[in-house]
Amino acid sequence: MNVVANTWVDIVRGTEVDEFADEVDLDPDDPAATRICWNKPAALTEIKQNPYSRAAGMDRVVRYATLRISARLEITRGCTVRDRKTGYIWIVDTPANIHNPAITPDTRVDLRRTI
Fold first, then answer.
1. How many alpha carbons lie under 13 Å from residue 4 in its C-beta half-sphere?
2. Are 44 and 1 contacting, i.e. CB atoms less than 8 angstroms apart?
3. Is residue 44, in this structure, part of any structural domain at all?
4. CA 80 to CA 87: how far, in whole Å?
5. pLDDT tens, residue by residue, 93-103
């Protein structure tokens, strides 16, 4: 990894149907979830935004973060990331694998969490 890690993360993939017939993400502790990595060092940088929702008529608190983690992980949009340091659970918005012929760069992942 090319950056200094400031936390450890678990990344899983998978969904299930709840009692209201809605599709929900699996909890990282659920054995049915497909584990991508477990207790992996990563760098997480967080920012907060308050976008206005016209439908609700009020501001929402949405936290965004950028995750840098070692390459060669199959992270896709919709994966669930749990920060083991804080316990926060994030949703993957945009994974980006940057290509460089000289070195293998880290995987950069944009995350979001609605409060």
1. 1
2. no
3. yes
4. 12
5. 988 877 778 88
